[in-house]
Amino acid sequence: MAQFFKAKPSRSKQLSSKLSLEVTQLDHLGAGIAHHDGKIVFINGALPGETVSVQLTEQKKKFARAKLLKIQKISAERVEAPCPHFAQCGGCDLQHLNLDAQRAHKANTLVDLVAKFAQTQASEICQPLSDNPWHYRRRARLATWYDKSTKHISLGFRASSSSKVVEIQSCAVLAEPLSALIPELAFMLNQLSGKKALGHVELTQADNGNFVVLRVTKILSDKDKARLAEFAAKHQVIVLLQDDDGQCEHVNGAGELPYYRFDDSQVKLDFSPGNFIQVNGKVNQAMVNQAVEWLAPQAGERVLDLFCGIGNFSLPLAVNGAEVIGVEGVPAMVEQARLNAKQSGFDNVSFYHADLSADLSKEPWLGKVDKMLIDPARAGAYESMQSLKKLKPKALVYVSCNPASLARDSEVILKQGYKLKKIGLIDMFPQTHHLESMALFELKN
């Protein structure tokens, strides 16, 4: 008798019957945590103290994920999300939790993760750095989607864990002038004959005006460029077209780049589309001020700034005369940092390009330093921290956008003779689970 293979249904993706679960806490990604049959269950949208009706959507050996169906008992910390796009947009995933509770959750998560993985506690837990919880973003990248059947281009943000574009009319965390621009920008883009060639759209509020960068895969017609120039004049924005190679053509603005300044400082930082900048200008100012205060660099000292970007920390660290060495993995940002140092009048800052995940032992800038700052991406700075034994800075400030990698790297730092002196939350991204932080390590005597 012939036998035919019949695939068994995947247990990891089987839907369960409805369950009623008690949510006890949030994880560091903002999901509610409950327990069922000895497993941790992660539930997006659920809050501690709530009883919820859910359906398991994914089951693994030690954990499961569930879809929130109904809230049977509501947390006192739950609020109604003010953004009309909250249920669809994949961005601000903690709008349903009141602001004080958001900040308390993030601060506790930071301390708990470091205590768990690095087996240490800071001598001082600092007050969070924070500012306006709404309309704080000075930069955002919007996605576009062209519908072939309707010939309509949608402008918005990606849905959570999806490539689908949620068309939006406003954004509650984007700077108000940029948010107000979205509907008319979307209308104008739909008037372009070359709209199929549009990719993402980057909106930026800089100290010298508002910028709109359109990613294009083909050269736009002169007629389309004229429409863009008319839009730019009407809304007093600078429009740039960015091609596949990252090169930009100014529709208007005579080649002007966006920039930001620090309060009461000679520091002026130009940046190009694609350069990383902190999107929360007010909190970035407070963060840099705190880093400078903690390290207190002085003339005659040598300060190393790893993952330096365009010089966001490097130049403020050099104000009092310390020699500052900035190192970055993106060549274009190294070049921009050098230009920023020159135009701000610093001759005590030098910038180098290096792969900071590789062996650094032969790099020309590597040597004895007095103080050090690192501001890595989400992956952290595990490889770079292996050089601490040679560098031996007496103080190290670690700025982190991922508490898990900070906790892992803290263990490496402590093993090399350091103690955790201070740690604190930086509320760079209110209404989201994203957690920025700063830690100060000091070399033991």
Automatic annotation (TrEMBL):
The protein's name: 23S rRNA (uracil(1939)-C(5))-methyltransferase RlmD
Recorded catalytic activity of this chain's protein: uridine(1939) in 23S rRNA + S-adenosyl-L-methionine = 5-methyluridine(1939) in 23S rRNA + S-adenosyl-L-homocysteine + H(+)
Keyword Methyltransferase on entry: yes
Family membership noted in the UniProt record: Belongs to the class I-like SAM-binding methyltransferase superfamily. RNA M5U methyltransferase family. RlmD subfamily.
EC number of this enzyme: 2.1.1.190
Binding site for [4Fe-4S] cluster: 83, 89, 92, 171
GO molecular function term, any single one: rRNA (uridine-C5-)-methyltransferase activity
BP GO annotations: rRNA base methylation
